[in-house]
C-alpha cells in the first residue's frame, strides 16, 4: 500500500466513515471513493481506464446484443441470503439470462444518502463484486450521486447490463402456444418472505433465506439440453411472483393456462408464513427462480436438465398452456376444485381476521 | 404442515363431495350462508363450488370486518389524519384501501400528506406510540370478536403505563347482532330477506365467544348453525352437517371446529373485553343499517385513550355509492355479478365499494378467484340467473 503514493493524503475510512455530499460532487473525494472502493472491488481493464464509458468488443458472428436495466430500492438493505448489492447484480443478470442471452457487462449507478456508513457501503460493494464474479460478468462503468440526508433510503442501485444472444435463441413472452408445458426451477416465495420477515421483524420458527441467485448458468444448461427453439418462454418471477409472471405470459401469447397446485414447490416455512399473514405464495417475489414454457415433446428433457443444475434441484412441471380466449390462468386446487390465479393487485397485505 | 395438509386432502374432499351430493339429493334446493369472510375466501380460494351440487347455494354473509365498515367511520379517521399533523394514524392493511368520501381512502389521504401507517398488530401500534413520544398515535381498530381482545389489551397496557399519546378509534362489531339482522332485516321489510336454510358459523370469532351465543338464535329462528374452521375440508364438513340437520328437521348449534372452539369460549378474553369495552347503543353497519347493541365502545375509565372523545370526533353517516350493491351483497340478497360496476369500474385496483377491498370481501374473492365461472354469461350478455353461485 505504501509503495504507491496516490494524489491524496489519507485513505477513506471504510470502518467508521460516512458518505458526505462531497462524494458525489465530482471532485477529489469522489475520485477517491471510486478508486478506493468501486474500482478496487470491480477491478477489470475496462473500468480501470477510468473513462466516461467502456469500449467493448462486438459480440461474435450471428450474435445480437441484449440490454436490460433495473433499479433496486430494497428495504432492508441487508437480509438473510443477500443484500442490495448482490441483488442488483442478480436482478439484471437474470433479466438478460431469461432473454436467452449470455450476460457480459454491467453498468452500476449508485445514489447514496449523505451520512450512510462507508462500512455498509463497502459491504454492499464487495457483495456486488462477488456476485458479479460468480455470474461471470464485469462491472465496466458506473456513476455515483449523493443526495442530502433524508432524501434517500441509504443506497439505491441501478444496474444496466449487456449480454450476447447466440443465434437461434429467441425466447419471448409472446411465443407460448396451447399445449406448451410450464416448468418452475424451484421453491417459490423465499425472497419475498425473507424480506417481509426482516422488514416487519416477524419472528418465524425457522429463518427464511432469500433465493437471490444468478440464473445465467442454469439457462445455459437448459439450452444445452434441448433444441433452442423448444424453449418458448423464459422468465424470472420477481415482484408479483409466479402469478403475475404467468398472467403476463398468458396475455402476451394469447393463451390460457391450467396449473396443478399440488405440483408447485413451496417450502413449509414459506407456506406457514403466508398462512399466518394471509398471503398467497404464488404472489410473493422470487430472485433466483425461473419459469420456462417449452414445447411438450421436450419438456421431460428440460425438466431433467433443470434438476441436474444446483439452482434447479427442486424443479417441477406445474401445468400447461391452453387455448383460452380470455387468457385466464386457472389452477386445480389441493382439494380438487378450480380457481383463477390472478395478477397481484396492489401490494399483498396481510389479512385482518 | 402436516396439521394443515390433513384438511386439504384431495381424496377426503372427494369423499365429502360425494356425501354432500347424496345428502342434497332430495329434489329440493338448499341455501346456506357462510357468515365469515374467511369462509368466503376459503370457498373461492379452493374452488369448492366445483365440489358442490348445483342445488346447493352458498351465500356470502356480512362477516368481513372491512366490508361492513361504513364510509362515515373511514371519513372520521381520514379527517383526523389530514387535519392534525401531529397524528400518526395506524391500522391493519386492508383498512387503508376502503373507499371513503371525496374519492379518498386512508391510502390516498397518505398521498395527500396525512401520516398513515400500516401495522400488523395492536402491539406494533403501541410500540410506535412509545417510539414517537412527540406524536399522537391513533389506532383505527376494526374487526369482530376475534380482534377485540388484542385491542382491549393495548388499551389496558396504555392506561397502565400512562401512555398519553396513544388512543384508539374503536370500530369493533359483534357477530350475533349481525346474524340476527340478516334474519330480521331492519324495519322488518320482508322482501329484503333471503332464503337461508342454515349458517356456517364463524371460526376465530367462536374461539373467543364460544358456541353458546348462537344457541338461542338457532332455536328461535329454527336455523341450524355449524361452527367451522377455515380449512377447505372444515367448510365442506360443515356443509354436510348442515344438510343433515335440515333433512332431519333439526335446528341446533353444532361444532365442527372442536379443535379450537368450546361451548363457553375463552373466558379470560371475554373478561378482558368486558373490562375495557361496553356495548354501543347503536352502530351503523354498511349494508345492514344502524343496529342496536351491535358494536363496542371504550368504557369511561379509558376515555383518555378513546380517540373519539380525545379529538372530539363526530360521526356523520354517508350513503354508499348509488350503483354499488355492497349493501345487498352483505345481506345475502345479491351476488357480485349483480352489480353493474363489478369487473368494469370496480376492480381490486380501483375498488368502488368495500366488498372489493379485502380478499375476504365477496366481490374481491369472486373477482380474484372465480370470475372465469361467469364467462359464458358475460360473453352472451344474458341476464344473471337468480341462483348463480359466486363462491
Ligand atoms: S362490485 Fe364494487 S361497487 Fe359493486 S357491489 Fe362489489 S364492491 Fe360494491
UniProtKB/TrEMBL annotation, chain A:
Residue ranges constituting the PurM-like N-terminal domain according to the UniProt record: 50-164
Pfam families: AIRS (PF00586), AIRS_C (PF02769)
Domain PurM-like C-terminal: 177-331
Biological processes annotated in GO: protein maturation
Family under the similarity heading: Belongs to the HypE family.
UniProt name for this protein: Hydrogenase expression/formation protein HypE
Automatic annotation (TrEMBL), chain B:
Keyword field contains Iron: yes
Coiled coil location: none
Similarity section: Belongs to the HypD family.
Keywords: Iron, Metal-binding
Biological processes per GO annotation: protein maturation
Presence of keyword Amino-acid biosynthesis: no
MF GO annotations: 4 iron, 4 sulfur cluster binding; carbon monoxide binding; iron ion binding
Lineage: Bacteria, Pseudomonadati, Pseudomonadota, Betaproteobacteria, Rhodocyclales
Protein name per the record: Hydrogenase maturation factor
